[in-house]
Design brief:
Number of strands: 2
Order of helices and strands: HHHHHEHHHHEH
Length: about 270
């Protein structure tokens, strides 16, 4: 296979995104003396800047339409995403905050926290939904369950990506749990991407999910995952999983039917 100048440029851009992310994340880089604020601003800056070469790669791959186009009718596509919206909404610790078991104390850092959530969502969605998902869909398009396989492979990589948290001092148990639920969230976001045809809703859902899940550990204190939280999470998760799986199966079923009809005509 011949390597083109575009291929080389794409590799260089991807390496530059990795370099930006890792270098700005190093301990010696300090933007402020406040430890929490420094981590938040570094996280937002490193991921935000890494998005620039990633966007360039998407454009070079001629997938720039994922930023502005959508599958019609748009309203129907967005309504399809309501179960995903419920999943990210119940990740916010409403019950713990209302009961007083958890509380928020660092309200001054809320803007920095929001920026970090948006930057994380943007960078990871550009990589896994903007770059990898179209590649896997194309690679498995001739398989009987090509769409499901493409989503499963991409979601597995998305889950394994979170093993990187071990290098920042995270415990093995919570990290493995994060890998598992990241696989499910990744599948959900991939389905949203396929259904809507646009990466922006994926970025927003990802950012809101992180906002709810990390706001207390980052800006407050106290146990925030109580019985109500887990009950709502389980119910929303099961319903959304069924919604996504049935949708992906239907895509492959319709695709296989079209292929059979085309073969019969030939």
């Amino acid at each position: 296979m011949k390597i083109t100048k575009r291929d080389i440029l794409i590799c260089l851009l991807f390496l530059s995104a990795c370099a930006i992310f890792f270098v700005l994340g190093l301990d010696f880089v300090r933007l402020t003396q406040n430890e929490v604020a420094n981590r938040l601003y570094k996280g937002a800056l490193s991921r935000g800047l890494a998005c620039l070469p990633l966007i360039a790669i998407v454009i070079l791959l001629k997938n720039g339409k994922i930023f502005y186009s959508h599958n019609r009718p748009l309203v129907k596509a967005l309504l399809w995403c309501l179960p995903a919206l419920v999943v990210v909404a119940v990740n916010f610790p409403f019950s713990a905050l209302i009961s007083g078991n958890a509380r928020l104390t660092e309200f001054g850092l809320l803007p920095a926290f929001v920026l970090e959530c948006l930057a994380i969502g943007a960078m990871e969605e550009l990589i896994f939904r903007g770059l990898f998902q179209p590649m896997f869909l194309d690679a498995f398009k001739d398989k009987r369950y090509g769409t499901i396989t493409a989503v499963a492979v991409n979601s597995a990589l998305f889950g394994l990506w979170h093993l990187a948290n071990l290098f920042s001092g995270a415990a093995i148990g919570p990290t493995l749990l994060q890998v598992c639920y990241s696989f499910l969230i990744g599948a959900m976001l991939s389905a949203v991407f396929i259904r809507v045809g646009n990466v922006i809703p994926c970025i927003i859902l990802h950012a809101v999910f992180n906002f709810g899940g990390f706001i207390v550990p980052t800006l407050g204190s106290g146990p925030f995952q109580d019985a109500i939280f887990w009950t709502l999470t389980a119910v929303a998760g099961v319903l959304c999983t069924a919604h996504v799986v049935l949708y992906l199966f239907r895509i492959d079923k319709d695709k296989n039917k079209e292929q059979r009809e085309r073969t019969e005509k030939e």
